[in-house]
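Figure 2 data, in text form.
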Amino acid sequence: MRLRRISGSFSRTWVGPAGHRYRAREIACPRGRLRARLPVNVRYPRELRDDLDRLGRVLVSTPSGAQIPLSQVATIRKVEGPSMIRNENGLLAGYVYVDTAESDIGGFVERAKEAARRVTLKPGYSMEWSGQYENMLRVRERLKLVVPITIFTIFFLLYMNTGSGVKASIVMLAVPFSVVGAVWLMYLLDYNVSIAAWVGMIALMGLDAETGVFMLLFLDLSYAEAKAEGRLRSLSDLKEAIVHGAVKRVRPKMMTVAAAMMGLMPIMWSVGTGADVMKRVAAPMVGGLATSFLMELLVYPAIYLLWKWHTEVKGRSLPV
């Protein structure tokens, strides 16, 4: 055995069975401190350690210099060990992989945490929940910032487009209308709330604003036409103008909504890599568009009627 200094440590090299060389390194501590002793593990080549009988015949030296077989001083057997040694934050870590389809990740982990509280861990052990659950927590914190900014941006753009806070508020009513359909369709398809579903909800807000602006445009056109012709003299005249704008022009509105929904249908029937994620993005958009369209046909005209009647028509209407 020979000893030489290698960049702050001692490297020891020796010759083992069948002429194989082995090297181990002992770390040298800075001057003035005690030297640390670390265990050295020697691994023979695979052809020498696959056969236990052959490995037991390896000769080892005794303090007196005699050579004896390894089987006389050690018991050699095969045991199951970890396939990989992992560490996290400088500590040894073991992973338990769990996959569930019975509920959402958040609900499953909360129930698992409740069950894990009954387990007493040994000193020095800790338990953490990672994977998709950890990603979900990070995305949830981001959504707390992204969703309000998205709603405010849509409202600001609507206000810049219509020039009226009331009209922008009416259009924004499509958001809760669409959530009804999104939740029901996800329930019928047995989809759990996930990050992909939230992405679909955010995209649905933009589609709702589009269909809402389209509905409001036809109501404004019908109201302006009736006003220009002098037909807004009573509540019945206002109702007739709003019905004309809401019902008699339902075909272009339906075409707009149907075009958006048909563009999402191939995703709902898709298979292959990534299809499960994309389906959960598209499902809220399909269900939300369906209910928001029906709600806009039923609720928008009534709100528009009350707004125009109390702000413009009522003060100058003639008695019937």
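Caption note: The first helix runs from residue 46 to 49.
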